[in-house]
Task: inverse folding
């Protein structure tokens, strides 16, 4: 049986940065994100007779057999749960406005979890789907749901899952990604967070910060207070990035243009235009603001970055099945 699913990526407002269990991907802390409408992955999974291994095709290119590790881990779990014995062909297409490093493992593994479980005849609850997606990539746990989503860290496979904070988000919060190119050698989020946990002397403090930020962020969301959400998200992201600078060896995801963007955003704020920023394991900046300020913000960013490097995204839906 074949099943096809779509999942959207998400951007964390309270970041996940560190694992307690590498195999099961149990995080050190809770985290909270916004699922976005603009960036998504469509994935078809087909368990077939006569295959001697799993196959993965992404954007029409077949992956080498040696690079299937995380995908196989999710498929193995599906086989374990369903009794399906055959191997699968996984065919995935990423939809991003431009090829600019915004494709994310979050949408990829959430779509895979949904498509693979249905192709194997399972009808998992969304909580169980989030646990399955988690085995591929931590942030994928949250992409099972739309809108504002919390990943409850838990302590084992059963207790580490996502739950919705607010699925229909219509109080005007919006994100804009500034696509910043870099020639810097990339440090994967997986490797970067591991080094941070192991070597940053500030890691214990980060755990405390996240516990406080989760409470404050949920309160700000309940008030639909975009300024408080943006302020907290910005502070949380910078504290996460302080872990990379305090690791041994120290590293950073900042590029020169990242700092330029941050300075411009601070400047806009000083001039009364409320917008905030967050960033992940790469140099791109994502602005958080009220959609009523979108036109003004784009006007201010365009001279420095060019309109085609600015991508507006709104709250998006959770993972769902597509008709074949
Ligand atoms: C900075 O989910 O990519 O985006 O679990 O190792 O696959 P793995 O890591 P990943 O890390 C995401 C890190 C982040 C913050 C976040 O999304 O919460």
Result:
């Amino acid at each position: 049986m074949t099943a096809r699913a779509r999942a959207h990526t998400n951007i964390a407002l309270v970041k996940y940065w560190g694992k307690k269990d590498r195999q099961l991907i149990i995080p050190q802390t809770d985290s909270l994100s916004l699922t976005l409408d603009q960036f998504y992955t469509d994935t078809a999974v087909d368990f077939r007779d006569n295959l001697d291994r799993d196959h993965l095709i992404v954007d029409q290119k077949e992956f080498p057999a040696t690079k299937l590790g995380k995908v196989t881990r999710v498929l193995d779990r599906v086989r374990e749960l369903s009794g399906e014995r055959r191997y699968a062909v996984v065919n995935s297409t990423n939809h991003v406005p431009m090829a600019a490093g915004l494709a994310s493992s979050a949408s990829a593994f959430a779509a895979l979890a949904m498509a693979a479980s249905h192709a194997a005849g399972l009808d998992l609850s969304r909580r169980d789907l989030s646990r399955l997606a988690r085995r591929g990539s931590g942030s994928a746990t949250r992409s099972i749901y739309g809108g504002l989503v919390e990943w409850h860290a838990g302590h084992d496979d059963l207790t580490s899952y996502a739950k919705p904070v607010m699925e229909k988000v219509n109080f005007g919060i919006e994100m804009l990604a500034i696509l910043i190119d870099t020639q810097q050698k990339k440090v994967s989020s997986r490797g970067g967070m591991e080094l941070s946990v192991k070597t940053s002397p500030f890691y214990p403090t980060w755990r405390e910060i996240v516990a406080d930020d989760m409470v404050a962020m949920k309160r700000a969301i309940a008030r639909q207070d975009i300024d408080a959400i943006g302020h907290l998200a910005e502070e949380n992201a910078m504290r996460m990035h302080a872990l990379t600078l305090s690791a041994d060896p120290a590293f950073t995801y900042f590029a020169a243009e990242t700092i330029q963007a941050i300075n411009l955003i601070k400047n806009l704020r000083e001039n009364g235009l409320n917008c905030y920023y967050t960033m992940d394991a790469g140099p791109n900046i994502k602005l958080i603001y009220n959609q009523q300020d979108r036109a003004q913000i784009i006007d201010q960013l365009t001279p420095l970055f060019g309109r085609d490097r600015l991508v507006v995204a709104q709250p998006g839906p959770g993972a769902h099945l597509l008709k074949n």
Notes: The CA atoms of residues 96 and 178 lie 13 Å apart.
